[in-house]
Amino acid sequence: MGLAVDGVTQVLDISQTLVLSKLPTANDAAFDSHANEHDARCHPRTRTSLLESITKWADNPHGEIIFWLNGMAGTGKSTISRTVAQCFADRGLLGASFFFKRGERDRGNAALLFTTIAAQLVAKEPDLAPHVRVAIEDDPSITSKALREQFEKLILKPLGNLKGGSGGVKEVVLVIDALDECERDNDIRVIIHLLSQAKALSSVSLKAFLTSRPELPIRLGFRDIEGKYQDLVLHEIPKPIIERDIAVFLNFELARIRNDYNALSPADQQLPLDWPGCQTAQALVEMAVPLFIFAATICRFIRDPAWCDPDGQLAKVLEYRPGTQQSEIDKLDATYRPVLDRLLLGSEASKVSVLKEFQTVVGSIVLLAEPLPIRPLAGLLGVPEKAVVCRLKPLHSVISVPASPESPVRIFHLSFRDFLVDPGKANKQEKYPFWVDERQTHERLAVRCLALLSTGDRLKKDVCGLLLPGTRRSEVQDIIDTSLPPDMQYACRYWVYHWKESKRLIRDGDLVDQFLQRHLLHWLEVLGLLGWISESIGMVDNLLGLLD
């Protein structure tokens, strides 16, 4: 009997491996991916009643299929999602998680949503593997089919074929965060509708926990499934509860900042044991409510070792509290302007230089199609690595700069991008000198991509020197990576995207025309080497649509 069990397990393991190799997945989309391991979870003494409501929903066999947590930018949705996903994982309920993120290509759209979820489900539930394998064998192109077909054949039908265990119906919860960051509105409505179909399952109780901003396409999607979901609006939670939670978080973080600073400072330079004091802490709470992102950002700003002055940093933040000369600003201004205004304390010549570097480096970071590590970022922008490091050094409270040179630079929160590119700031550059012109920045990035690809013989026939046609990519991956460094790979994949977003047309003799005349076939060859040839069809369609 033991041998039989071992044999079944072995077969299932092989089946799992085969299936997982056929399912394309979005890198870093899972809540517990390496890239996200340092992202915040809720403090144990915050969000208690909210988390209890979510737990009750998950445990209620007669509850709605979907729990929709919505709230405006910065109210803590993703932190709650990570906490909920961890809680469900600890209890063995989490089937899969997918965290959308605008600006990270595979996580910014729904193309790999259901294949990623299917892969996670198979990895957790070996019995699913044979059923998903059948779906792929019956239709080898299923992973690129419409979302409806993917969901039904890779998730719904395989789950429906599972047999209930001795414990009764198996409970599985999906966690999908930041649905509003999915780039196609129609996909959002389809996703909501498809998830509501899980009620048809009998052997498995499949539920979905979703978070988003309350954007119109999402509200319309939920209207389509009226009565099949439970919702909770974060910014409508009673103010005293939000105030208490933010106070707990701030007091905890400020105490850590004080203790860490004092541990490294001489006795005569240490912060008082009651720093920053009850009144100051309360002022910060009032400035923050209802935005947890304010509390998190200003704590990183106060802690920032680039300034090595927590008390001075705190004073800068307090300049933006109600009743001061800066009081006529909104919450996001109060979150990000203390960080940015700190950069403009030098001479006029210094300010001009800082703003120019900011537009080049930070303006590009917030509009990249996917994040890059510092070295390829510097290569793409055509600036020294040292210049990128220097410009980012005082911005660690809003931009995550990993210690590892291989890890990409990311903004902490989408609201920072929203703040910088807000069209309402376009004609107020005296007040908002850091405003980023989206079209201009995309054009600059497209030009840099084409310049990078056109330099010397970077693009040429058989650029990797493989010589023999038909060589498998997997056999020469090291050669490809050496011949096509990350900045060049980015330029190949995304120059069309940036040109399209710049709203520039293509004319005879212009930069794009010259590039395509010389390098069209070389470019397509590189896309093939990198496994992106299927994307080239959409790129060419986009180029045709931009012809003047």
Task: Name the strands of the widest sheet in spatial order.
Answer: 2-3-4-1-5
Q: What is the CATH-assigned architecture of the largest domain?
A: 3-Layer(aba) Sandwich
Total number of β-strand segments?
7
Query: Major β-sheet, in short?
Result: 5 strands, parallel
Structural class from helices and strands? alpha/beta
* The CATH top-level class label of the largest domain: Alpha Beta
* N-end to C-end Cα span: 72 Å
**C-alpha geometry:** globular
Helix and strand succession? HHEHEHHHEHEHEHHHHHHHHEEHHHHHH
Low-confidence stretches: 1-11
Radius of gyration: 25 Å
Beta-strand portion reads 5-15%
Number of helices: 22
Domain NACHT: 65-214
Keywords: Repeat
InterPro entries: NACHT_NTPase, NPHP3-like_N, P-loop_NTPase
Protein name: NACHT domain-containing protein
Textual characterization of the structure:
The protein folds into four domains: 11-237, Rossmann fold; 239-345, no CATH class; 347-436, Arc Repressor Mutant, subunit A; 454-545, no CATH class. The protein is 52% helix and 7% strand. It contains 22 helices and seven strands. It has helices spanning 2-22, 48-59, 77-90, 113-124, 129-138, 147-160, 185-196, 216-224, 239-263, 278-288, 292-303, 310-318, 331-341, 348-365, 374-381, 385-392, 414-421, 438-454, 477-483, 486-501, 511-529, 533-545; strands spanning 66-70, 94-99, 170-177, 204-212, 229-233, 399-400, 410-411. The strands form two sheets. The chain has a five-stranded parallel β-sheet. α7 (185-196) links the parallel β3 and β4. α9 (239-263) packs parallel to α11 (292-303) and α18 (438-454) packs across α20. The termini are far apart.
